[in-house]
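Full entry
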Amino acid sequence: MYREIAKLIMYGDMDKDCILYQFGEIFRRFDNNQSAKPELIKDIYTQLKRLLIVATDYGFNENLWHNYLTFFLVTNENPFSITCEKVGANDGSVNHFAKNDFKVFKNLFDYDFSAIESALGIDCFSHISNYQAIGKKELMYNKNVSEKIISLSRALEAAADEHAFFDCVTAFYKDFGVGMFGLNKAFRIKENAAGGIEFLPINNMDKVMLDDLIGYEIQKKKLIDNTRAFVEGRKANNVLLFGDSGTGKSTSVKAIVNAFYPQGLRMIEIYKHQFKDLSGIIAQIKNRNYRFVIYMDDLSFEEFETEYKFLKAVIEGGVETKPDNILIYATSNRRHLIKETWGDRSDIEVDNGMHRSDTMEEKLSLVNRFGVTINFSKPSQKEYFHIVIELAHRMGIAMTDEELKAEANKWELSHGGISGRTAQQFINYLDGQKMIVKSM
């Protein structure tokens, strides 16, 4: 195995801690009689456990060795894979080196583990070639990633040679991209040990769609129109969704990402304390073949907080032009984002009858940098009842409309007032009671 891995060119620059590299080292020590059997077995089981953790995290099944190699291929960002993501597999000298690597991976796919199993008296590799996960339906994993990896793994198993391997992998790069951005819809960020930015996939993102949000048709249309223009490469604006709590602002953003994910839309969620990293985030994603929404939930600033200045500089007004593949979507309960005080009015100047406050202008200028502002106001009681009744019908709750209205009215009086969120919580309660009744 290690002899094959040593032949890799485009995919050879791998982390020495990765499972593939570690297995290669174990097999090198085995071939050269450099380690005793118990030590080899221990090290094999250590890497096998790591492979099983990956399989559990991503819901892999069937041939875990093939799944892992496929996962390695589709997450390895190198000049060849990133070029394929952008323009596909064009003719060029780099294809020669890529096909060399795919011949290696074809050999790794077909690798015969029987010799080492027989010599060490183990059978773990045989078992992971036909792996059946226990309780897979109950596990929390990214089904989108699992399905893509397993599907491509099956295609690569059937590939006759490196040329067929090449066609399968490059088609995947072109259709879905490479790396974590190619497999996942949404990400958070954290600072790594070296002080750089690391993207963390959100594996359990809410699968909500815009049709699940009842009402607010005008608001949803404005958001859809802006996002569609963005993913189609036309001019689009940063968006601020503001209004009352529980009206569906955050749900709308999640739904828009779910809707436009197949067209290459990705979301990166960041928090106020991370605004200082905005320039670093943008630097890493500006040349990728995706459209990114940088998402800020529940955005607001107290008068002593100055992080909004990082945001202003990035949205508009910095020396470097904001890349065309990045927009900022934010939600807030505040229309003006930054808390105003009576002290802000102390610097008012009067000029030809016009009143101007430098402090207030500074604070309002942030909102003005969102080209689209969408107001999600609290529903009326009639709209609240409509939401409740529609949700109840979708959930199959056997109550009349009048009964639902009466109970929904009681619920909102003791659960935070009228809102879409209150309606959803009420329906969740009724559905839970229905399940209890069925089980009794």
Summary: The longest helix spans residues 37-58. The mean pLDDT is 85. The two ends are 58 Å apart (CA to CA). The CA atoms of residues 19 and 388 lie 51 Å apart.
